[in-house]
Amino acid sequence: MAQEPPFISPSEKTYLKGLVHLKIKIMSEMPNFNYIDQLADGDEAFKSKLLQVVKNEFPLELEQYHEAVSSSDLSKIASVVHKLKNKISMLGLESSYLIAQEYEESLKQNKTSKKESFEEVLTLMTDFINSF
Amino acid sequence: MKNCVIVEDEFTAQEVAKHLAVKYGDLNILGTFDNAEDALKFINKNETVDIVFLDIHLPDMSGFSFLENLTSTPKVVLVTSDKNLALTAYNFDLVVDYLVKPLQKDRFIEAINQC
Fold first, then answer.
1. What is the ipTM for the molecules in this complex?
2. Is the pLDDT confidence value at A103 over 60?
3. DSSP for residue B85
4. Residue B96's closest CA among B65, B74, B70?
5. What residues of chain A lie within 8 A of the CB of B10, using their CB?
6. What fold, for A45-132?
7. Which of B6, B8, B14, B16 to probe by mutation at the A interface, max A CB count within 10 Å?
8. Lesser CB count within 10 Å: N end or C end of chain A?
9. CATH class of B2-113
């Protein structure tokens, strides 16, 4: 016997559509060096130094994030997410920055919406940072 | 040449601020601090500090509490990833500008010119 498809209300459909669009936007967004190149303005020594600082600091922040998540301390998570926003932006991840902003705001209201999307951003950043 | 201090707990942002201060601001960096307590001690003892680049979200103290505890009177440029605190920032006479991270060269120069 064929199963009936689950009923989805129009408001749920709109919400799900929004989520799908956001996900596509994040997935199509790639980290890049545009900001860093503009800042360095041909100064390769500075660029290389800055990238090294990012490479050293990001894993520590990632660790702080996971520790905060494990302890379920929402205000601590918000604080780490806030700190990570600068790197997200520096790597040209504009839509991801908005995700981080929404996640930080939700954490301040004792909620965890956008957690999953934010963690996808972290994975994307990890892969990129490990590649240079 | 003006003297500045950078108070920022994120090392990547510190590096960006240092680069801009030296390359485009023609500033002499007297110190870089990743916590408010050490920075406050230094700035309150050194009247030669002309400009402070101050991150609002510090681990041990908010940038606003930091400003309340300043006994010297340098010009302060607030630096933050939070766009929503600008109005509060301008309640402090020492604050001359408010920069959103990541720092942009042109806005940074504009801020320096106001100091």
1. 0.93
2. yes
3. G
4. B74
5. 57, 83, 86
6. Four Helix Bundle (Hemerythrin (Met), subunit A) (1.20.120)
7. B16
8. N
9. alpha beta
